[in-house]
């Protein structure tokens, strides 16, 4: 049976509208401020761009329809998110940037009706931003979430949370936090974590310093956050107690893929700029694009773009079928994070001195995409997980053959 890779006509129209909106409305703002969202106006800019996105009919393609979104599946999100990601500010404008997009997805699947009204609805509308507070300084949770040290103690009517988080994206100015805290066991145990919903103005929550990083287009920064005797009522427990790690998988797999979608768009922009440059630039008696070494870089970029998109489509297909798609998303994320950086890096090389200057966006695109090899799981951790699953399957097969 043939596999249909076409999109519904309504999705094609949304892709076209997103492409036009991103390139005509958002790209000029990004270029004016060299991709620095704080310099461009931060939350004030976000509100303005999101109002324009709503008027253009491209806002929140991922959010449930009942909360003002388009309700797209993972597969249908891919080309729309890619077009939004063509500008570093595009995901902010369409309200599909990290961490809000992942939080919308998780709340839609896990939150109670009351929690959806209090937290999901304003987030999907763009009235507030959010943050997902899991990562901790060593020896706490990082690439190994089981090392979680932030603790939640049961008290009358709810829970009291104490802990220290860092690299919490979007924390400065967030309207609420999703806090991962240990409710049983000890650091190193695989289970025993719970997710809690807490408005940002809850007593005991303190947003500390912005941690300086390569990327400058993530609104709200990457911050340290302190939780000191933070009271969360029972009704704000997200999902079941002690099941936080399992629920996190609802968010993490899809969020890795939407990162791929957005940054694939950014790498395509870099490639388009480089191809246009070598097609017109004279050197060594011909157009640069006629030189074999340049043509190899162009071809390798085309291959990396196509391969990234193919792995993404496969992972989204599995997610839409209802599975965790752990292996598919790990494979796609690892390949994409490295391929996307290669695409941008080759594009810089093709453009020579201009490539490392502010006259083109390539240098800032390189800074933005490089952290993807760390964010949402370093490549090394994903490789370890892929190998562990593969070898584990082989061991099970060997045991079954012997029985």
Q: Could you give a quick summary of the protein structure above?
A:
Homodimer. This protein is of the alpha+beta class and about 400 residues long.
What does this structure look like?
The chain has 403 residues and is α+β, with helices and mostly antiparallel strands. The chain has 12 helices and 10 strands. It has helices at residues 9-32, 37-40, 43-56, 74-84, 90-93, 100-110, 113-125, 244-280, 292-320, 326-355, 362-369, 379-402; strands at residues 130-133, 151-155, 158-169, 176-182, 193-199, 205-210, 222-233, 237-238, 282-283, 286-287. The strands form 3 sheets. A 4-stranded mixed β-sheet has the order 1-4-5-8, with helices on one face. A 4-stranded antiparallel β-sheet has the order 2-3-7-6, with no helix packed on it. Strands 9-10 form a two-stranded antiparallel ribbon. A hairpin with a 2-residue loop joins strand 9 (282-283) and strand 10 (286-287). Helix 1 packs parallel to helix 4, helix 6 packs antiparallel against helix 8 (244-280) and helix 8 runs parallel beside helix 10 (326-355). The longest helix is centred in the middle third of the chain and has 37 residues, at 244-280. The protein is globular. The two termini are 37 Å apart.
């Amino acid at each position: 049976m043939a596999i249909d890779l076409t999109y519904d006509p309504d999705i094609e129209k949304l892709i076209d509208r997103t492409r036009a909106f991103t390139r005509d409305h958002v790209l000029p703002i990004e270029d004016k401020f060299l991709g620095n969202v704080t310099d461009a106006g931060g939350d004030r800019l976000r509100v303005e761009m999101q109002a324009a996105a709503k008027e253009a009919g491209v806002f929140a393609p991922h959010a449930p329809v009942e909360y003002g979104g388009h309700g797209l599946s993972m597969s249908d999100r891919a080309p729309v998110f890619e077009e939004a990601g063509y500008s570093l500010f595009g995901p902010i404008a369409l309200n599909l940037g990290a961490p809000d997009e992942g939080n919308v997805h998780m709340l839609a699947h896990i939150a109670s009706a009351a929690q959806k009204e209090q937290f999901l609805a304003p987030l999907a509308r763009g009235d507030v931003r959010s943050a997902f507070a899991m990562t901790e300084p060593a020896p706490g949770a990082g690439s190994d979430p089981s090392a979680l040290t932030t603790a939640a103690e049961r008290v009358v009517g709810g829970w009291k949370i104490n802990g220290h988080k860092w690299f919490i994206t979007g924390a400065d100015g967030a309207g609420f936090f999703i806090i991962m805290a240990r409710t049983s066991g000890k650091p190193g145990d695989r289970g025993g974590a719970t997710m809690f919903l807490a408005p940002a103005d809850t007593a005991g929550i303190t947003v500390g310093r912005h941690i300086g990083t390569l990327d400058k287009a993530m609104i709200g920064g990457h911050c340290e956050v302190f939780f000191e005797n933070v009271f969360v009522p029972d009704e704000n427990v997200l999902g079941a107690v002690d099941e936080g790690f399992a629920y996190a998988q609802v968010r993490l797999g899809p969020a890795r893929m939407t990162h791929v979608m957005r940054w694939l768009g950014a790498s395509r922009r870099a490639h388009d700029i480089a191809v246009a440059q070598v097609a017109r630039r004279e050197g060594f008696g011909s157009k640069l694009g006629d030189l074999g070494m340049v043509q190899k870089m162009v071809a390798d970029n085309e291959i990396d773009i196509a391969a990234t998109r193919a792995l993404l489509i496969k992972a989204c297909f599995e997610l839409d079928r209802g599975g965790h798609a752990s292996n598919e998303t790990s494979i796609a994320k690892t390949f994409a994070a490295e391929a996307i950086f290669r695409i941008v890096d080759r594009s810089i090389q093709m453009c020579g001195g201009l490539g490392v200057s502010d006259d083109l966006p390539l240098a800032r695109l390189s800074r933005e995409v490089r952290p993807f090899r760390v964010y949402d799981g370093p490549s090394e951790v994903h490789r370890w997980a892929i190998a562990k699953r593969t070898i584990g399957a082989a061991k099970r097969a060997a045991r079954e053959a012997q029985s």
